[in-house]
Amino acid sequence: MARRATAYGRGGPFVYLVALLVVAVTLGPVLYGALGGFRTNAQLARDPAGLPDPWVFSNYTNVLSNSAFWQYTLNSTAIAVITTAVAVLAGVMAAYPLARYQFKFREPVFLVFVIGLLFPAAVAIIPLFILVTQDLQLGDTWWGVALPQAAFALPVTVVILRPFLAALPKELEEAAMLDGATRVGIFWRIALPLSMPALVTVGVLAFVTSWNAYLLPLLLLRGDTRTLPLGVADFSTQYSADTAGVLAFTTIAMIPALVLFLAMQRHIVSGLQGAVKG
Amino acid sequence: MTRVTAAPEATDPGAAVTRGADARRVTGRGRSGKRRQRLEIVLFVTPALALMATFVAYPVYSAARMSFYDWKGFGPMVDSVGLQNYVRVLGDEVFTDAVMHNFIIVFASIAVQLPLGLALALLLNRRIRARGLLRTIIFVPYVLAEVIAGVVWFQLLQPRTGVLEKMLSSVGIPVPEQGFLGTPDLALATVFVVLTWKYLGLAVLLFLAGLQGVPDELYEAAQLDGASWWQVQRRIAVPLIAPTIRVWIFLSMIGSLQLFDMVWILTGGGPANATTTMATYLVSMGTQRSNFGIAGAASVVLFLIGFAMAVAYQALVLRRDTKADA
Question: Which UniProt keywords apply (chain B) (predicted)?
């Protein structure tokens, strides 16, 4: 372990230079937004690339005291939580028999989910709009957005969960069976707790996808039911002259996703790799 | 491991109660057990299938159905127009241009993001300081909502007052008069640059993860044989992560065909339809002009193109990986 081969060798100055450049390009726009929020529009107009001088906090405090911002945050959170709960629960319930039971239509049912992967929401967006707003009367509600989002999150959820559930040792089930547990009991008390890591992974994926979603909320939500991405987009067109305000609003809107990512980094990464291997 | 042993214990209280019933079930296994199992399967699978049927299958079916009617979004669909909507969509230059824009993004992503992502992954796959932090930073744009990233870039790209123009003109590079997003010839390329900023991190991260799976012994053996760094990368590392690369291409392809959010925020499809995509076309047809038949036909075309590409890619490229696994 002390000496690794070239591929794992230490980086020379060139590698550090490239790494530095990548960091600058990656974080540049994010930092520009964050710092821009601490400046006035006059400062931004004078020198767009400069640092705050003096530092102004009013842009950020204005956003935080804006009740619409909190309403958007609440909507985004509620919709993401419902989406995640529905997708993970329905997904693990479906993946369980597909992984552990032998039955005639097992592969055709699984194929439904695999084919579902190929249907982007964009294809169905106009009929979904009609279905949710006219037939179900769920326009401008949390559930109206969350249910379709959960449905579109199901294919990837089932495809990731099935191999995981299939790999759980059979002996546990047999032992529980001998102790008189029912299949449903085994599902709740053994399969679910044991598959927690995979459930967290698919849950985080569903949550982040919902949190960042734009197209479906754009068509289904208006006024007070709008989510954070819609709020940001609308704020930036409505107050396009107030660049500093827009930057502050956008920066604050970034924070929840970033915090979630940092906390859940391992799960997101392993989930994406799982999706790739699956 | 503690949870594994604890789990059966947890079922104990219930077990005592059901033991009698269970004895019956064990002896009477056969028809009633089968029926019970069938019931359980139906119970477990129904919620997911019902959601898929209601919110995926039915809308997709309606989109296909809509495409054969002249329908304004209310009342029954009665005015069947045959294939006329398809003729109109495929004859509409805005739509054919949109298809072309999608394909440009598909191929540009593979031509630019793949080599760039691979190069960065290979460079960063060493014991350098703060590698974990670096990986986290590279992934940040991917986690942000496309809308939020788009709004920040929209500010950066403002004509005259934006930072990017100021920076470029300060080093003597000429900037377009209408701004990068306002000039028809540059708008799509600009959107692509922003998309690359947003999605390169995913490529780097996946490739790095693939590289971690390459055993050190292979590198050491190659090094003992006198292979240079470049040869090791080209002959060992890259071929070994080829399955990851092929899956990334697939994900990138599908994503590029569905492109909507970033375009809608940065340009709204403009200027002069220079950046429309299939998704922006069908959304503006369906919501702004209530042209549901046209939107339906465009949806079907979008689906067919994506489906054909997915099937072809699966058959021609990904099949090799599944074969190797078996």
Answer: Cell membrane, Membrane, Transmembrane, Transmembrane helix, Transport
Helix, strand, coil abundance in chain A, percent, nearest 5: 80, 0, 20
pLDDT tens for residues A45-72?
Answer: 887 777 888 898 988 998 899 888 999 9
**Distance from C-alpha of B304 to C-alpha of B275, rounded to nearest angstrom:** 21
Question: Positive or negative, the Cα torsion across A178, A181, A185, A188?
Answer: negative
Give B326's Cβ-side CA count (13 Å radius): 5
Closest CA of chain B from A222, distance in Å:
14
Q: Per the CB < 8 Å rule, is A96 touching B15?
A: no
Residues from chain A that touch B140, judged by Cβ atoms under 8 A, are 26-27, 30, 258, 261
Which residue of chain A is at minimal alpha-carbon distance from B21? A180
* ipTM score for this prediction: 0.85
A125 Cα to chain B: minimum distance (Å): 8
Q: Do B232 and A257 touch (CB under 8 A)?
A: no
CATH of the domain at A109: 1.10.3720.10
Backbone φ and ψ of A10, nearest 5°? -70, 155
Q: With H, G, I as helix, E, B as strand and everything else as coil, classify residue A261.
A: helix
Range of the domain at A35: 12-56
A23 interaction partners in chain B (CB closer than 8 Å)? 134, 137-138
Superfamily per CATH, domain B84-325: MetI-like (1.10.3720.10)
pLDDT 10s digits, B112-131: 999 999 999 888 887 777 87
Amino acid at A174: E
Q: Do A86 and B60 touch (CB under 8 A)?
A: no
| pLDDT tens per residue across span A86-104 | 999 999 999 999 988 888 8
| Residues in A touching B206 (Cβ below 8 Å) | 272-273, 276
